[in-house]
Q: What sequence folds into this?
């Protein structure tokens, strides 16, 4: 599904009062920058349209940014990613948006969320699934960036961990982290550990006594 962001060139830049007036009119100030552009471009976004789209995308979702001038003429159309969103400290409303414009044939790094599927064997046994990293830094060409990385935890037993090196990735995609970094682990609750230890001790003790008795009989 293609996600299109419609924007207009913004001539009002750096004037706080004028920018506040834009926000009051239902406009979100924005900027687009990156190696795919010669220079940064100041933009204006229609608030309601952008917020509707914003609910459906993440930082790693490729967007089609379409920019028009004040006469409605298209001046820019390019792949883009949401780089940063600034919020109002009091109202939590979106105040400003940064778009990153990549260069088509150059790799980029971006945070991609993990999507966990399945129920771990260890959880079925009473363990706790602990997510160490909810997202990972991915390096790939812009058109290869996955929106999410699916992690199937079904086979993880008590005490097991899933590391960066265990993740299956699409072709041309690399996680920019250490291979041994733990992403997910199945924690064994303390009470469960004690119960297993006691059971093991009680099972092994009669075997030792039985063996000793047999040796005495042979003597």
A:
């Amino acid at each position: 599904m293609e996600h299109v962001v419609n924007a207009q060139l913004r001539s009002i830049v750096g004037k706080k009062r004028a920018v506040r007036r834009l926000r009051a009119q239902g406009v979100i100030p924005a900027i687009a920058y990156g190696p795919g552009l010669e220079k940064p471009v100041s933009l204006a976004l229609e608030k309601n349209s952008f917020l509707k789209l914003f609910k459906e995308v993440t930082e790693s979702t490729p967007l089609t940014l379409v920019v028009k001038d004040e006469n409605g003429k298209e001046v820019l159309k390019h792949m883009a990613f949401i780089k940063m969103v600034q919020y109002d400290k009091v109202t939590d409303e979106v105040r400003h948006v940064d778009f990153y414009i990549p260069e088509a044939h150059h790799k980029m790094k971006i945070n991609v969320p993990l999507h966990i599927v399945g129920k771990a064997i260890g959880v079925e046994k009473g363990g706790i699934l602990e997510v160490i990293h909810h997202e990972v830094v991915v390096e790939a060409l812009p058109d290869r960036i996955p929106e999410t990385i699916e992690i199937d935890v079904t086979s993880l037993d008590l005490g097991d961990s899933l590391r960066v090196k265990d993740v299956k990735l699409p072709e041309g995609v690399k996680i920019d982290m250490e291979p041994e970094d733990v992403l997910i682990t199945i924690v064994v609750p303390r009470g469960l550990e004690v119960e297993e230890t006691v059971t093991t001790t009680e099972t092994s003790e009669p075997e030792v006594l039985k063996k000793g008795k047999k040796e005495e009989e042979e003597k």
Remarks:
- Confidence is low (pLDDT under 50) at residues 194-219.
- The first strand starts at residue 3 and ends at 9.
